[in-house]
Amino acid sequence: MQGEALRLRIREVMVEELMLDQSADEITNDIPIFGAAGLGLDSVDALQLVVALEKHFGLKIGNSDAAKNILSCVETIAAEIEKSA
After folding, report:
1. Residue 70: pLDDT above 80?
2. Domain total for the chain?
3. Residue 9 CB: number of other CB atoms within 10 A?
4. pTM of the entire structure?
């Protein structure tokens, strides 16, 4: 899975696994995942998201420095999944 289909699936997984108030269609690929200007997720959500990404996409995130870059938005998550595919 690649391209927009992958990005939509990531958004769907985020909505399902993190029980977000938004729908997958309301989340853009470039909105920040963390912080008030974005989806406003916190560190507990980050842990859930890492587990969900591994479960659904086989994406393993090795350390917190890598996680900060990879988990910045849907686009960066998708790019990492595509890179490791």
Report:
1. yes
2. 1
3. 17
4. 0.92
